[in-house]
Each structure stands twice: as structure tokens, then as C-alpha cells.
Amino acid sequence: MHESQVARKLVATLEAAVNEKGAIGVKSVKVRLGGVHWVDPDAFRELFVLFSQGTKSELAQLEIEEAPPKARCQPCGFTFVPHDHHPLCPQCGSAEIEIEAEPDLQILELALIMTNQNIGVTQLDLGSDEIRPIC
Length: 135
Ligand SMILES: [Zn+2]
Fold this sequence. Notes:
The structure is a single chain. The protein is an alpha+beta fold. The protein has helices spanning 2-21, 41-52; strands at residues 25-33, 61-66, 70-73, 79-80, 97-100, 105-116, 120-127. It folds into two domains: 2-67 and 103-130, hypothetical protein PF0899 fold, CATH 3.30.2320.50; 69-101. Helix 2 links the parallel strand 1 (25-33) and strand 2. The chain starts with a helix and ends in an 8-residue tail after the last strand. Bound molecules: zinc ion (ZN). Residues 73, 75-76, 78, 89, 91-92, 94 line the site of zinc ion.
């Protein structure tokens, strides 16, 4: 459920970037997956391929960087990767856990395919500062 929302959002964002820049398609995109629930990268990749069919990101190469959430125990200070929404501290058993997570999805790099009457097909590289974090 969650992965599917995030994958749909990525496809929509890429479509908007292609239209905004007057490109003909997406060559490659690099994303960072974060979030409290930690989006599963394999499921995400499959959904991206599915949802991007027939869109301008259909042939895009997708590179995924993972950013798992971090949990920190308030009483003892132990840090660990949480595996569910209400984790217990593996060291002292406390439920007073603070979870830090990156946004569900950030686009780090994006390469668009452009056409130019004089020089044919070119590539436009956008850095993360040019692309808004999307959710
Ligand atoms: Zn603890």
C-alpha cells in the first residue's frame, strides 16, 4: 500500500519535470527511500516499472539508495533500526523510543532526454537542489 503511493508519486513528479523542461523522456533517476515505515526497495522498483508503463519515464533507469529509520531509546540511549511502528529497546526493553526518519522519497539525481534541432538528442542533468523533495 505504502510503496504503491510513493511509486505513483515518483512517476507523477517525473512526468511534471519532463513537461516543465520540455524534455521527451527520463533517462535515469536516483532516489533515496526513507520514511518511518521504510519503503521496501524491491517492491518499490517493481511498482515503479508497472506505473511508469506508457509514461515518459517508462525506460528510465532507477537507482535506489536506502535510508532506514533510526530508533533511539530515551532511558538508555541505545540506537537501533526499528522493525515495526512501536519497537521496544533491545537493550533495556523500554517502549520510550524516539524514531528519526528521512522523507519517504527524495530525488537525488535526474537525467532527462532532450531533443535539439541542431545537435539531436542530448541529456539534461538536474541536481537535487533543482528538484523538490516530494513526500
Ligand atoms: Zn533502552
